[in-house]
Amino acid sequence: MSEKTKEDFLAPVPSQIGEILEGSHDAVFGEITEDGPNYRAVGWKGTAVLMMKTQIGLGVLSIPVAFDALGVVPGVICLIVIAGITTWSDYVIGTFKLRHREVYGIDDVGELLMGRPGRYLLGSAFCLWWIFVAGSGMLGISIGLNAVSSHATCTAVYVAIAAIVAFLFASIQTLGRISWLAWIGLFCILTSILIVTVAVGIQDRPSAAPADAVWVSDYKIVGSSSFTDAISAISTIIFAYAGTPAFFSIASEMRDPTHYNRALILCQSVVTCFYLAIGIVIYYYCGSYVSSPALGSAGPVVKKVSYGFALPGLIVSTLLFVHITGKYIFVRMLKGSRHLTANTVKHWVIWLGCTFGVTIVAYIIASAIPVFGDLVSLVGALLGTPMCFQPMGGMWLYDNWSKGKNHRTMKWNLMVCWSIFVIVAGFFLMVAGTYGSVVSIINSYKESGGSACWSCADNS
After folding, report:
1. Under 8 Å CB-to-CB from 184, ≥6 apart: which residues?
2. Do you find a cis peptide bond into 37, omega within 30 degrees of 0?
3. Cα torsion for 124, 106, 343, 168, to the nearest 10°?
4. How far apart are the C-alpha atoms of 144 and 295, rounded to whole Å?
5. Closest among 219, 436, 369, 196 to 293, alpha carbons compared
6. H/E element holding 31?
7. Are the beta carbons of 394 and 113 closer than 8 angstroms?
8. How far is Cα 176 from Cα 412, in angstroms, rounded to an integer?
9. How far apart are CA 340 and CA 268, in angstroms?
10. How many CB atoms are closer than 10 A to CB 457?
């Protein structure tokens, strides 16, 4: 990339309406003018909070349960290792974006690495992954509404309400305008989990523990779970860090992409410290009686309070999943057209059609598929892992392999080994996690036959 081209790409794009410079050009969105949305409006703090909100959402509520399967020490080690790998993967996304300014999504990476088949493979995986996660988010909102209202109405109604709210807010056009919602959502979800963390520390026993015996926490330093339970727990931790593929879209809407690493360091530091704190503390005080999601661990009153705070956070997570998936499809449909950045009828029809379509599919998945929780674990292992591991190892090799042909340094050799390790580890976790999820689905069917479609039963 020439210096002139690089400077043009990195030049900050004004964030407020009225400050947009006529003729500002972006490699992904094209000409950015006052006649349409400004897709380059997110500052580094907004970027950090959007990153954190794609991470801290559904997965964090299952970390104490993952620690129960693995034990405290293996759980902490696995979490730190996964945090390290995904942080490196996230860093590679930032550097790759600076070198390849035309890249908008992981499908672009797939085409660079594997040609057209790679584009279709990773693009399809990206859409399926976020649609299933959006469906999981709608189910999480219904759990929160059931908990707060003491199951005042049919659960299917709450899932529909979640879908409507997600569609309305996800249809806000730019991440720059959504970032303020991410601040609110992040504050609410952190507050809700801290309430539970404090509550389990001051109560004499978790809500699920027997009331007719002296309570002593049965937490395990090292777990003794089966391979399928252990690998499912590791997949749960990966799910908690699986916001990685969304970082492509977030980076594309940054006002100044050179500040990406600053946002990334803040995001991963806060996320990892928070995961460790709540995972260790809640599991230490609850032991094997920790609830899943963890917000139900401290009794009915605290459960209502914590879900009351968590609901805005769950709503923001779900709208982000819908928005990012809809935006991906929208950009792919209109890239190179003036309708991408102009407020035309075609622009609005396609944009609302994309967010509405994603919402409907996610709603159907959340409501109609039996054994939904296990199915999400299966999709997470099958699609989430290859969104966070293998492509990033390939991206580093794509940009740096030729450098070692003439002059191989120790750093280059180590980074090649590391990239190959990330790719191999990703495939292992994908296969093993898929196997564990399939076994779990089979066991669930044997025990209960799965859940009913559009069920009215209380899921809280």
Report:
1. 312, 316
2. no
3. 60
4. 10
5. 196
6. strand 30-32
7. yes
8. 37
9. 32
10. 11
DSSP code for 294: G
**Torsion sign (Cα): 338, 343, 344, 347:** positive
Q: H helices of 384-409, where?
A: 385-388, 390-400, 403-406
N-to-C CA span, the chain: 53
Helical (H) or strand (E) element with 24 = strand 24-26
Looking at the DSSP assignment, which residues form a beta bridge with residue 31?
A: 25
What are the structure tokens assigned to 210, written together? 């027997």
Tell me the C-alpha distance between 308 and 57, whole Å: 15
pLDDT truncated to tens, each residue of the chain (460 aa)? 444 444 444 444 444 433 434 446 788 888 877 778 889 889 999 999 999 999 887 678 789 989 999 999 999 999 999 999 999 999 999 999 999 999 999 999 999 999 999 999 999 999 999 999 999 899 889 989 999 998 889 889 999 999 999 999 999 999 999 999 999 999 999 999 899 989 988 887 888 787 777 788 889 999 888 898 899 889 889 988 989 999 999 999 999 999 999 999 999 999 999 999 999 999 999 998 888 777 888 788 888 999 999 999 999 999 999 999 999 999 999 988 889 988 899 999 999 999 999 999 999 988 887 666 666 677 778 888 889 999 999 999 999 998 887 788 999 999 999 999 999 999 999 999 999 888 887 887 777 665 667 778 887 7
Helix (H) or strand (E) holding 330: helix 300-334
Strand partners, 25: 31
Full DSSP string of 256-273: -GGGHHHHHHHHHHHHHH
Buried b (16+ CB within 10 A) or exposed e, 17-35: eeebeeebebebbbebeee
Q: What is the pTM of this model?
A: 0.90
Distances (CA, A) of 324 to 70, 285, 351, 399, 422: 33, 37, 12, 26, 26
Interhelix angle 72-99/410-448, rounded to 10 degrees, is: 120
Spell out the domains of the chain, with CATH numbers in brackets: 43-448 (1.20.1740.10)
Question: Which pair of structure tokens corresponds to residue 198?
Answer: 């404090």
Quick check: 31 and 343 in contact, CB under 8 A? no
Q: For residue 11, how many C-alpha atoms fall within 13 Å in the half-sphere facing its CB?
A: 16
**Structure tokens belonging to residue 344:** 């035309």
**Residue 214 burial (CB < 10 Å; 0-12/13-18/19+)?**
exposed
Residue that has been written with the tokens 């997470």 in this structure:
380
Please say whether the beta carbons of 342 and 335 come within 8 A: no
Contact in structure between 257 and 100 (CB atoms under 8 Å): no
